[in-house]
Amino acid sequence: MPKVINFSDAASIGIHSAILIGRTDKPLNAIQLSEKLGHSKFNIGKVLQRLVKDGIFSSLRGPTGGFFLKKKPEDILIYDIYRSIEGEIEYGACPHEHHLCPLDMCIRDNIIKKMTIDFVNHLKANTLQDYI
User: Fold this and answer.
1) What is the domain partition of the chain in residue ranges?
2) N or C end of the chain: smaller count of CB under 10 Å?
3) Coil, helix or strand for 69?
């Protein structure tokens, strides 16, 4: 069945990893997260490095290393994680390049724009702490 809103694997990995890391007081490495999330350690490592680059996580190398939160969970919006991985969300205009819609009101632009705004507002209203 088709889904109207769908998280990419990368966004799902990032959000779920943040929740798992936020629930522990020690760093988790890509192998540990791979076992818990069912994704390859390479995909997890790639996603988490993006979150490190954007200041959401920090990482330590070595046998006791791994990823940990750089900020308090209550200071991390779910939107921050999503945006770090997916980029800024577009509120969308008509996707047709010629804009020759025969309708007075574009159903795609109105409904999809409203759903996108609601989705972003939901992500911004929830912090990582809400899921820990």
Assistant:
1) 9-131
2) N
3) strand
